[in-house]
Amino acid sequence: MSTDRVVLVTGGNRGIGRAIAERFVAQGYKVAVTSRSDEGPAGTLTVRADVTDAAAVDAAFAEVENALGPIEILVANAGITKDTLLLRMTEDDFDSVVATNLGGTFRVVKRASKGMLRARWGRVILISSVVGLYGSAGQVNYAASKSALVGFARSLTRELGGRGITANVVAPGFIETDMTAELPADTQAEYKKNIPAGRFATADEVAGVVTWMASDDAAYISGAVIPVDGGLGMGH
């Protein structure tokens, strides 16, 4: 299995994205990450990009291509939340989450697909969430943006599947990150009660699935939703 391929992880400076980037580095891939501020992990090339800005995305890709070569594996991970109940949700709360989580995915996948088509090889891995199909009160905007990635990956599979390119969705459940650490203790305990595994995942457990999806072992999987959620969303 070739592991010197070029990988780009959006939002690779913290949380799940950082763990994914670290795992690719450990396996010998050439790894770049996008970040709006912080640096990516050791061994990665960090490029500045706001995924809601097509020109910034294009510039970031050009920087990676010049330094490392064409991007062969794209992990679209950059995402935000602006949680609140529907009746309190503002237009901006909705539009900004969709613009980043779904629009950002559109921009980076469109840009990456050009090189993948030329190479007739590519892996597109979209980081969704158990919430996308399970639902979550107070997260209409986030859940809608994350469930949309399923239709995105399946349509992309139908468009590009004959060119050696796969497109899949990884749907993590609750992960030990800064985002979940902010939840009140009683809320965390309530979530854990509903998770058959009885615990949150580590970011590294998600990263292992993502690197496997990028490997030759997963060459015949496309349009799939791979849950990494301890059984929370099964059946969805």
Automatic annotation (TrEMBL):
EC number: 1.1.1.100
Entries under InterPro entries matching the protein: KR_dom, NAD(P)-bd_dom_sf, SDR, SDR_fam
Entry annotated with the keyword tRNA processing: no
EC class name: oxidoreductase
Coiled coil: none
Domain Ketoreductase: 5-178
Gene3D superfamilies: NAD(P)-binding Rossmann-like Domain (3.40.50.720)
Tagged with keyword Cytoplasm: no
UniProt keyword list: Oxidoreductase
Gene Ontology molecular functions: 3-oxoacyl-[acyl-carrier-protein] reductase (NADPH) activity
Sequence similarity: Belongs to the short-chain dehydrogenases/reductases (SDR) family.
Stated name of the protein: 3-oxoacyl-ACP reductase FabG
Organism: Microbacterium insulae
Phylogenetic placement of the source organism: Bacteria, Bacillati, Actinomycetota, Actinomycetes, Micrococcales
